[in-house]
Amino acid sequence: MSAALVTTAGLTVRHGAATVLENVDFSIVPGEIVTIVGPNGSGKSTLLRAILGGVRPAAGTVTRRAGLRLGYVPQRLVLDATLPMTVARFLGLPRRVPAAEATAALARAGVPGIGTRQMAALSGGQFQRVLLARALIARPELLILDEATAGLDQPGSAAFYRQIEQVRRETGCAVLMVSHDLHVVMSASDRVICVNGHICCEGTPEVVAEAPVYRALFGEGTQGALALYRHHHDHRHGPGEGCGHDHTAKRAAAEEQA
Amino acid sequence: MLDDFMLRAALAGIGTALAAAPLGCFVVWRRMAYFGDATAHAAILGVALSLALSLPVFAGALIVALVMATLVTLLAGRGYAMDTLLGVMAHSALAFGLVAVSFLSGVRIDVMAYLFGDILSVSRGDLGIIWGGAALVLALTLWRWSALLTATLNPDLARAAGIDPRREELILTLALAIVVAVAIKVVGVLLITALLIIPAATARPFARTPEAMALIAALIAVVAAWGGLRLSFMFDTPTGPTIVCALALMFCASSVATAVRRRA
Fold first, then answer.
1. Is the distance from CB of A8 to CB of A26 less than 8 angstroms?
2. Which residues of chain A neighbour B200 with C-beta distances below 8 Å?
3. Chain A partners of B30 at a C-beta cutoff of 8 Å?
4. What's residue B87's pLDDT?
5. If you placed Cys at B163, which of A120, A240, B158, B242 could pair as Cys (CB 3.0 to 4.6 Å)?
6. What is the separation of C-alpha A205 from the centre of its chain, rounded to a whole number of angstroms?
7. Mutation target vs A (from B25, B31, B143, B156; most A CBs, 10 A cutoff)
């Protein structure tokens, strides 16, 4: 097995008195696509931010391989209206890139010829693709995506994930993502990690989809409410959360049948 | 060559404008206008302390501005909303500073000169400090430009690129404190924020990139410094406020021009 790009050992994060993540052991190796799933407030984004170095662990460690090149696509990026920014300039942050390289990156991302447009004038889909193009310009060894398709419709996010897979094929970079699009993500991932304050379960998409804890969190079709009972853990999930995710699971099931 | 007080005043104004305008862009982008105010108002306390301890005014103002900026950064996000906190600290610092100045018996000082600036009395020594400080701020801004810009867009985006956003914030704070110390003589503590904000706001409609905005802002600030000085000489008005008036007029012109262009 090749050396891990990022490893967390016993990672615990607290916000004030609340423990957001507890005792998380995680690692990702080169070329791997790993997806983190979990209900709202389960600590998915906190885990990503801990790996980026944005939150300080209360206990445990986060170890990045020395000199690791990271690419990051945030959930959303709000540009202050007072900040003028062309797409081409944005691609060159923080390190300038030659114009030809920027043009090629935009073409690869499926948004050719928009280099002179203002970032604020882009549509949601174009914006996310530009964010991805920027993350890829640095030739990352690990690409981190935090709900990168949050603002996109179904075809848009499906196209986005196809592109992620293509990027992995072409560049061999590892991908770590948080997503709500369970049905899309599950099929594209090598490994799925189900987080709810701790790691509930992990494994291949098939293994996780069959795991009782996963089903408890995300429901299984119409029996989602019943499944909540089967979650034998020391914490409780509000029925609201179960319901919220129930829809996703139903939608996934419906689309599988279609 | 620097014997003419008008020439010294013009050089002092232009030096301050050149340093303040690009930095002011970050103040606008990061919505730190009130932060600039708090730092600037605190400087009057620094002036009082330097006079009491017979220190150079620049040093006292710089130190207190730095302490204030650090204090605000540390207190941010602990209970009070940022604008409330800054409102409390900015005006408390100003009030304590004015009270402290009144205690200084035996020293006859003109408080107005520190509140609104006294650019016509800039000495050669002052000019050296102003240009030294301005060059330092400009160098800091240029050196950290890309990192600062990335951290301004999104802290996590910066972290992924190996930039520590807190470090960049600290550098910005330091640069801000230096600008405050340098600008006291030029426009006074009450109007320093205008020198930071108005050029950037005026430049915004004409810029397509952050760099263009900083350049245009610097140009606007220099024109206003020079123009304000001439106008104050012609009409015998206080120079610091006249410079800010010139900036305000340019801002109005820019806003009107933008509105007309949108209609057309």
1. yes
2. 82
3. 80
4. 85
5. B158
6. 15
7. B156
- One-letter amino acid of A12: T
Q: Which position has the higher pLDDT, A71 or A213?
A: A71
Residue B153 domain flag: yes
Please indicate, yes or no, if residue A126 is contained in any of the structural domains.
no
Domain that residue B83 falls in: 5-193
Distance separating alpha carbons of residues B163 and B161, to the nearest angstrom = 6
Do B210 and A83 lie within an 8 Å CB cutoff?
yes
In 3-state terms, what secondary structure has residue A255?
Answer: helix
Looking at CA atoms only, how far is residue A36 from chain B in angstroms? 18
ipTM score of complex? 0.86
CB contact under 8 A, A94 and B210: no
Higher-pLDDT residue of B200 and A43 is B200
Q: Which residue among B146, B158, B213 sits closest to A95, beta carbon to beta carbon?
A: B146
CATH of the domain at B142: 1.10.3470.10
Chain B CB within 8 Å of residue A115 CB: no
Which residue from B153, B152, B147, B183 is spatially nearest to B61, judged by alpha carbons? Answer: B183
Cis bond upstream, residue A94 (ω within 30): yes
- Split at pLDDT 50, 70, 90, the class of B62 is very high
Q: Give A30-45 pLDDT, tens digit per residue.
A: 999 999 988 888 888 8
pTM (2 d.p.): 0.85
pLDDT of residue A51: 93
pLDDT higher than threshold 60 for residue A252: no
